[in-house]
User: What shape does this take?
Amino acid sequence: AQSVTQLDSQVPVFEEAPVELRCNYSSSVSVYLFWYVQYPNQGLQLLLKYLSGSTLVKGINGFEAEFNKSQTSFHLRKPSVHISDTAEYFCAVSRGDYNTDKLIFGTGTRLQVFP
Amino acid sequence: KAGVTQTPRYLIKTRGQQVTLSCSPISGHRSVSWYQQTPGQGLQFLFEYFSETQRNKGNFPGRFSGRQFSNSRSEMNVSTLELGDSALYLCASWDRGTFEQFFGPGTRLTVL
Assistant: This one.
């Protein structure tokens, strides 16, 4: 079975500052890793994913994440945040094969960007 | 392509009633997953359907059920509603080529 831990429930940051949202996972098999963003009263939108290959993954809206197998981490970063990045961010893991069938989500990190 | 659509967007029911939620996946996607989102439990997997077959089910009581039709549209049903069933129910449509799940806007169910 897989599990995900998001270490920070809330991250306050000023506009144009860098941010890192932390995610650690646990699994006995290979995994696929994802970051999703949720704006108020909306569904989830995929920011980026890691399936295999390069451990540095670039996504939409200037976000990137690095897969670190030895640390079992998949932290999300952005060098300069905007007010519009204020949202809830979810890290998710799934079994890393073709028959993967569900996402296991972390508890979420609320990013609050202040002017 | 149109995104994932869910109907209705909002629903208010009373305890003991039953409810049916609908999800239309992205055209061409044959896998549909359902998730429940609550402030206390977060996002939890309910079940996944592929080609009209339930492939996996999460740890929810039998009051939660679902089905998928030949056009890949899916419904989930909750019978004998409890206050704790109040949640945002999200449907996701799988692209099995890229392993991405595309989420709908959700149905917010309130049980009074």
Summary: Chain A has a mean pLDDT of 93. The CA atoms of residues 71 and 86 of chain A lie 27 Å apart.
